[in-house]
Amino acid sequence: MNQLASLLSVTRILLDVEAESKKQLFEQVGQLLHAESCISEKTVLDSLLAREKLGSTGLGLGVAMPHGRIKGLKSASGVFVRLRNPIEFDAPDHLPVRLLFILFVPAQATDLHLEILSELAQFFSSKTVRDALCLSESAEDALAIIRNWTP
After folding, report:
1. Is the sign of the CA dihedral 127, 129, 126, 16 positive or negative?
2. Which range of residues forms the domain containing residue 33?
3. What is the mean pLDDT of residues 30-35?
4. Number of domains in the chain
């Protein structure tokens, strides 16, 4: 099994999300994580926006990997998002983003953080995977695509 599947659950796969900006999307993810854990919406938003200020996490090809470190988080976790309409993300190819894997790691998890980001980049480099995620009809289908992917 790949590391990505262990970071997700069906409740953390959001399909056809309506968001007009990075900030609006990050606020929605903050609401989700706050509902599932004791992490505040503001902590999630601040973490993601701080990372974006360092440089866009847009990879190109309609994909982004926003990520942040959260003080007090016990283990890495993720949220997969497919947007209904792509949004501007300052990606190197200037294409708007539709597929995102938003990663959260404990504040001290440097090696783990880098390993997961590397695996995510490999995952999203597959056109077959990207196309399948764009066509998946349910969170369960999207999670199956992620679980069945082999690095």
Report:
1. positive
2. 4-148
3. 90
4. 1
Mean pLDDT of 51-65: 93
Instruction: Identify the three-state secondary structure at position 98.
Output: strand
Q: For residues 136 and 57, give the distance between their C-alpha atoms in angstroms, rounded to a whole number.
A: 24
Contacts 24+ apart (CB under 8 A), 127-133: 130/61, 130/62, 130/63, 130/99, 133/80, 133/82, 133/99
Cβ atoms 25, 81 nearer than 8 A: yes
pLDDT at 96 over 90: yes
Distances, alpha carbon 97 to alpha carbons 49, 63, 105, 150, in Å: 16, 5, 22, 24
Residue where the block lists tokens 């590397």: 118
d(CA 5, CA 8): 6
CATH number of the domain within which 137 lies: 3.40.930.10
Q: Is 135's pLDDT higher than 90?
A: yes
Under 8 Å between Cβ of 29 and 102: yes
Radius of gyration of the chain (CA): 14
What is the percentage of the chain residues whose pLDDT exceeds 90?
75
What is the set of active-site residues? 67
